[in-house]
Amino acid sequence: MITLPPVCDRGAAAALYPEFAESLGPAPLVVDAARVERIGQAMLQLLVSAARSEGGIAIREPSAAFTAALHLTRLEHVVLEGVAA
User: What are the residues whose beta carbons fall under 8 Å from the beta carbon of 78, sequence distance 6 or more?
Assistant: First the structure.
């Protein structure tokens, strides 16, 4: 499982990229989005890319800010497809 930080900016995306790349596989990668307060384009791109990978991703406990950003960018259907309980 990968836990997203409160501020998901370009720096956070760059720091988490290796962990995402290493963790992707045939099973969905669980991403905890409970603490997200702000999310930027770079992190959204990383999440979309991961969601479109072989196993995809499963978002766990998306925060209101996370969900609002996905709704605003119309990416909820791509990223939230596999919301984990």
Answer: 48, 51, 52
